[in-house]
């Protein structure tokens, strides 16, 4: 009897997260789809003009903005992240491993609004000066700044997952490579890292997920102009920023359009997760 | 391999250092950095209306923020920036400019010569009876309440009413506009001294939420930094003006600009004027 009750409790606990996802899906679809249909799917997804007051709801600039900023974050964050985790797993002397690990854990614990404020006060003026001295113009709140900041923010995610993936590679791989005459670098970069590939990819994709969903920090440094990007030193608005900026005031169709923006964002995240599981499955079969 | 990595690192750091070095010599003779508030914001609505810009004319190059502090930080750091904030939030980090030759201050707003202003409303539900709210609104509209309004940089209303507290007991919820909220906080504080029996809970959201929640009964008193819309009034929202707020047009402290005309501000925000060189000459 006792066991049955406990089984029920466990089952309920297991279902809670599924229930949460289900409810969110339901809420998004029920509230978002009618709005999208009212605006017209093509007009909504492909429209270049976002002017809620004039009933023009085109979110193409925001979709492109989210993609640009995320791509930028990958360019900044992934190389540093992967090299850091290689260093931590294979090169790092014990004396600096502790502080390094602590620093990275701390980095992941910083609230995003603090990142945003750091970006606003430090990165924005820095990028403004660099942009202007190179004659590229812009005022610092730009795709470049947002990418830089997001690249920083996704570091802990990438490093954490990648490092454990590298550590999970059997020691025999590394030793075997050395026995065959490979150097330390050769063994690490040509044998161990490729063997940890699926873990590395998972780390990168998790980082992408974090970058695309990040809101507070991006809103403070990206400029938030609702138009197609015209240079990496110019501002852009992301999907998340669009929702947060206007949610408080939106009514009627405007509100529905913002929820529909959430649907698009949800589809993005879904696509990312599906591609991760596909990659993992292929990795296992191969 | 190791050497190569070291070389790459060195080159990268040199590039970064070099870039910062150049940055310091950069002149701020670039175009104008325009900063605006998000669509639907009470401050933006008032600004757009008072300067006479149609929403569809607003340049898409304007940077958008949903917070006064981001607006002020950006303007304080960028020599070529222009923005606008509530007069009550103005401080020394930025410079408020004259509009049409009139300085943004209390006197000029009161006598009507400074035209960029908006009402602060509290909203009640029509026909709803609540002793505490009756008493509190009475206090706000009294001489004592309006003194609090003035002390915080906002413009008081002209006809103050007599007020003695009926000292009702209980609890009520006040909520809405984040622009009105700082003032309301001070008013609640002052009221609690007059009538310590009542507890007022302050919740900050935005004008629309404030009005909607009053209609739905979540808040007993709403705050709105804009006029109440017709549809809202039809659903029973009853606004009372408690103060007037000026909107200050702000630029960087180091800016050469001290004043602009409404037409020039309009030109900047519609994207027709893109350089500081062509404006502000007197």
TrEMBL record, chain A:
Predominant location category: membrane
Domain ABC transmembrane type-1 span(s) in chain numbering: 63-276
Keyword Transmembrane helix: yes
Lineage top rank: taxon: Bacteria
Localization in the cell: Cell membrane
Membrane-topology descriptor: Multi-pass membrane protein
Database matches in InterPro entries: MetI-like, MetI-like_sf, Phosphate_PstC, Phosphate_Transport_Permease
CDD domains reported in the protein's UniProt record: TM_PBP2
The keyword Cell membrane is annotated on this UniProt entry: yes
Family: Belongs to the binding-protein-dependent transport system permease family. CysTW subfamily.
Main function: Part of the binding-protein-dependent transport system for phosphate; probably responsible for the translocation of the substrate across the membrane.
Official protein name in the record: Phosphate transport system permease protein
Native source species: Aequitasia blattaphilus
Taxonomic placement: Bacteria, Bacillati, Bacillota, Clostridia, Lachnospirales
Gene symbol of the encoding locus: pstC
Automatic annotation (TrEMBL), chain B:
InterPro entries documented for this protein: PBP_domain, Phosphate_ABC_transporter
Iron-sulfur is among the record's keywords: no
Signal peptide: 1-19
Topological type in the membrane: Lipid-anchor
PROSITE patterns: PROKAR_LIPOPROTEIN
Parts forming coiled coils: none
Subcellular location: Cell membrane
Gene3D superfamilies named among the record's database cross-references: Periplasmic binding protein-like II
PBP domain mapped to chain residues: 28-144, 166-278
UniProt KW keywords: Lipoprotein, Palmitate, Phosphate transport, Signal, Transport
Subunit details: The complex is composed of two ATP-binding proteins (PstB), two transmembrane proteins (PstC and PstA) and a solute-binding protein (PstS).
Family, as annotated: Belongs to the PstS family.
Task performed by this protein: Part of the ABC transporter complex PstSACB involved in phosphate import.
Listed name of the protein: Substrate-binding domain-containing protein
Native species: Aequitasia blattaphilus
Organism lineage string: Bacteria, Bacillati, Bacillota, Clostridia, Lachnospirales
């Amino acid at each position: 009897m006792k066991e049955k009750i406990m089984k029920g409790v466990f089952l309920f606990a297991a279902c809670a997260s599924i229930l949460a996802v289900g409810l969110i899906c339901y809420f998004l679809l029920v509230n978002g789809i009618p709005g999208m249909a009212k605006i017209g799917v093509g007009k909504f997804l492909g429209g270049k003009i976002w002017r809620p007051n004039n009933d023009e709801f085109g979110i193409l600039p925001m979709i492109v903005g989210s993609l640009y900023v995320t791509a930028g974050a990958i360019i900044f964050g992934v190389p540093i992240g992967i090299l850091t985790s290689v260093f931590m797993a294979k090169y790092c002397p014990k004396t600096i491993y502790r502080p390094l690990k602590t620093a990275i854990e701390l980095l992941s614990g910083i609230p995003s609004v603090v990142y945003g404020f750091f970006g606003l006060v430090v990165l924005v003026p820095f990028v403004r000066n660099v942009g202007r001295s190179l004659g590229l113009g812009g005022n610092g709140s730009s795709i470049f700044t947002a990418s830089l900041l997001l690249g920083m923010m996704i570091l802990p995610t990438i490093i954490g997952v990648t490092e454990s993936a590298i550590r999970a590679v059997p020691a025999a791989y590394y030793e075997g490579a050395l026995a065959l005459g490979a150097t330390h670098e050769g063994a690490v970069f040509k044998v161990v890292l490729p063997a940890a590939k699926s873990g590395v990819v998972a780390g990168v994709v998790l980082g992408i997920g974090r970058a695309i969903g990040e809101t507070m920090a991006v809103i403070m440094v990206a400029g938030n102009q609702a138009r197609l990007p015209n240079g990496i030193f110019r501002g852009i608005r992301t999907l998340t920023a669009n929702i947060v900026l206007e949610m408080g005031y939106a009514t009627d169709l405007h509100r529905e359009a913002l929820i529909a923006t959430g649907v698009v964002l949800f589809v993005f995240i879904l696509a990312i997760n599906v591609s991760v599981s596909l990659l993992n499955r292929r990795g296992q079969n191969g | 391999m190791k050497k190569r990595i070291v070389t790459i690192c060195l080159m990268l750091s040199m590039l970064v250092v070099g870039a910062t070095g150049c940055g310091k010599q950069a002149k701020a003779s670039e175009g104008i950095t325009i900063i605006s508030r998000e669509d639907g914001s009470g401050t933006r609505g008032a600004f757009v209306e008072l300067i006479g810009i149609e929403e569809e004319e607003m340049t898409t190059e304007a940077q958008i923020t949903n917070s006064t502090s981001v607006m002020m930080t950006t303007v304080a750091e960028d020599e070529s920036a222009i923005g606008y904030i509530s007069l009550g939030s103005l401080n020394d980090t930025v410079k408020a400019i004259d509009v049409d030759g009139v300085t943004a201050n209390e006197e000029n707003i009161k006598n009507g010569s400074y035209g960029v202003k908006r009402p602060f409303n509290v909203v009640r539900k029509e026909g709803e009876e609540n002793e505490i709210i009756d008493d509190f609104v009475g206090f706000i509209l009294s001489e004592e309440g309006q003194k609090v309004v003035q002390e915080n940089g906002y413009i008081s209303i002209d006809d103050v009413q007599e007020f003695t507290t009926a000292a009702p007991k209980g609890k009520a919820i006040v909520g809405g506009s984040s622009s009105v909220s700082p003032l309301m906080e001070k008013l609640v504080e002052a009221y609690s001294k007059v009538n310590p029996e009542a507890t007022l809970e302050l919740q900050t959201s935005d004008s629309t939420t404030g009005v909607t929640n009053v209609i739905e009964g979540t808040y007993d008193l709403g705050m709105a930094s804009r006029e109440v819309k017709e549809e809202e009034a039809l659903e029973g929202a009853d606004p009372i003006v408690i103060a007037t707020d000026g909107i200050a047009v702000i630029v960087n402290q180091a800016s050469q600009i001290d004043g602009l005309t409404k037409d020039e501000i309009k030109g900047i925000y519609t994207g027709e004027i893109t350089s500081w060189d062509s404006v502000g000459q007197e």
